[in-house]
Amino acid sequence: MQRLTGKVALITGAARGQGRSHAVHLADEGADIVALDICGDIETNGYPLATRSDLDETAKLVEKAGRRVVSAVVDVRDRTALKKAVGDAVAELGGLHVVVANAGICPLGPDVPAAGFTDAFDVDFVGVINTIHLSLAHLDSGASVIVTGSIAGLLDMKDMASGAGLQGLGGAGYALAKKMLREYTKGLALSLGPKQIRVNTIHPTNVNTDMMHNMPMYRTFRPDLPEPTREDAELVFPLMQAMPIPYVEPEDVSHLVVYLASDESRYVTGQQIFVDGGAGMKLGL
Fold first, then answer.
1. In which domain, by residue range, is 187 found?
2. Is 169 domain-assigned?
3. Is the pLDDT of residue 160 over 90?
4. Is residue 255 classed as helix, strand or coil in its secondary structure?
5. What is the pLDDT of residues 29-83, one digit of tens each?
6. Which keywords appear in this protein's UniProt record, sorted alphabetically (predicted)?
């Protein structure tokens, strides 16, 4: 439908998972893409993060859709490097209209050190703030800011830290970040409303990505097993949702991202939207 023709969209965490899906779906609708990713591991995070080859593959998929793409390896915690990457990309592509602050990590497990709390919080909250604040100078009326939240991250902090929800210090940092993003995006939406720049947060349930499919996550869902397999974990994944599904797919979230990026949502702002198979209702959120 080319609902985004003439727009430039910036996506963090674009090398794989939800970020890649968002980049491709936005490109399919006519947007040129700025694809950013750390393309490297963070020590406290118990599963490997994306690589440069992953980011290159995202760029190829955007080009296959017939759109321009600028990709860069950058850590969203590094405000100076991020400012340069955003500025260079905007100069090359001629503007910025959509920001998808999607980069995130989820360090899980009872053995995650205190640094896991700060790493999770710094990527999942400070990194989002850096991305949005550095982008604001390039956004005009009609722009859209879209933030990736989390259903699991909205659980009570005591559950996140105790293991009743996501486990340990990393889970607690993740949860704090997602809770603060909910309030931050409401306040930002009110502040930017007079400029007709809208801000919304999407809270997915389990998503079929690398963040979901790793041993620390499997152990979180199956603490009864020392070495649970994907099949073991998928037996209990559906317990999160009201619908009998283990998770949603990245494209299920991307469809909403496209809507929020398009002018069809021109009066939708300050919303906390769940793509969750009923998980929020089931968890009382």
1. 8-213+244-275
2. yes
3. no
4. helix
5. 999 999 999 999 999 999 999 999 999 999 999 999 999 999 999 999 999 999 9
6. NAD, Oxidoreductase
The helix or strand, by DSSP H or E, that contains position 203, with its residue range, turns out to be strand 198-204
- Encoding tokens for residue 225? 């097993």
Angle (CA) 237-113-160 rounded to 5° is 35
Query: Given 47, 174, 184, 247, which residue is catalytic?
Result: 174
Task: Please indicate, yes or no, whether the overall pTM of this predicted structure exceeds 0.90.
Answer: yes
- Residues 276, 162: Cα–Cα separation, whole Å: 23
Residues in the chain: 285
pLDDT in tens, 187-243: 999 999 999 999 999 999 999 999 999 999 999 999 999 999 999 999 999 999 999
Which pair of tokens denotes residue 120? 């999770």
**Count of CB atoms situated within 10 Å of the CB of 265:** 17
Task: Please give the pLDDT value at position 147.
Answer: 98
| Burial annotation 60-91 (CB, 10 A radius, 16+ → b, else e) | ebbeebebebbbbbbbbbebebbbebbeebbe
Which is nearest to 15 in space by CA: 48, 183, 2, 1?
Answer: 48
Handedness of CA 3, 124, 178, 281 (dihedral sign): positive
- How many separate domains does the chain show? 1
Q: Which residues contact 52 (CB under 8 A, 6 or more apart)?
A: 15, 39, 73
What are the C-alpha distances in Å from 119 to residues 145, 199, 220, 284? 23, 25, 19, 28
CATH number at residue 29: 3.40.50.720
Q: Could you tell me the two tokens for 176?
A: 């704090």
> Is the residue at 220 inside a domain?
no
Q: How many other CB atoms are found less than 10 A from the CB of residue 159?
A: 17
Catalytic, 174? Answer yes
- Residue pointed to by tokens 């399919």: 28
What sections of 65-126 are H helices per DSSP? 79-93, 114-121
Classify residue 281: in a domain, yes or no. Answer: no
